[in-house]
Amino acid sequence: PDVTLRDTDGAEGHLSDLWSRTPRGLAVVFFRHFGCPFCRQHATQLRRDYDRFGEAGLHVVAVGQGTPEEGAHFQRRLKLPYPILVDADRAAYRAYGLREGTSKEMTGPRVGIAFFRSLLRGHRPRGVGQHGNISQLHGEFLIDREGILRYAVRPTRPSDIPATDDLIAAARDLI
């Protein structure tokens, strides 16, 4: 879906403006919320592999629920080289089929163990922000230059962080 989002300066833009200007495609990574420790961990993985995305001809953009100011703070704090877009009403989340998790999906031993590991790595939880929904789930998508969705991951637990290698491999497979 070609959704309209705001950047960290508050300017509105369409995702199609981004995917149409890429060599191979656009990786759109939806974070649960800017205070999520799993999302902070994922954001730093994307930062670590950022050059590999470029080598695969892929641009990266992340989407979070919140305000432009919250997105800018998240980007500065984690020193992220890729753009952060915000979706205060979560319309883009819905358009991409990202739903709210059930209480069973959001808790349990598997999530608890991953949460503890994330804390040990220094990814502390923060507030969900002004527009945050703690039950929102995340996802990753690869959209080619023509706007065709080529790859989608919609985890069912907040702790299930997709491997960046899978997204990069999917980008390399694009013709």
Roughly what is the average pLDDT, rounded to an integer?
A: 85
- Considering DSSP H and I runs of 4 or more, what fraction of the residues is helical? 25-40%
Strand order of the main beta sheet, please?
2-1-5-4-3-6-7
Oligomeric state of the chains in view: single chain
Structural class: alpha/beta
Count of DSSP-assigned helices: 8
Low-confidence stretches: none
Shape: globular
How many extended strands? 7
Biggest sheet overview: 7 strands, mixed
Question: Could you write a compact summary of the structure shown?
Answer:
By secondary structure, this protein is of the alpha/beta class. The protein has helices at residues 15-19, 37-48, 50-55, 68-78, 91-95, 103-106, 109-120, 164-173; strands spanning 4-7, 12-14, 25-30, 58-64, 84-86, 139-144, 149-153.
Features of this protein?
19% strand, alpha/beta, 175 residues, 7 strands, 8 helices
Note down, in words, how this protein is organized.
Strand 1 and strand 2 (12-14) form a beta hairpin. It contains eight helices and seven strands. Strands 2-1-5-4-3-6-7 form a seven-stranded mixed sheet. The mean pLDDT is 85. By secondary structure, the protein is α/β, with parallel strands linked by helices. The chain has helices at 15-19, 37-48, 50-55, 68-78, 91-95, 103-106, 109-120, 164-173, and strands spanning 4-7, 12-14, 25-30, 58-64, 84-86, 139-144, 149-153.
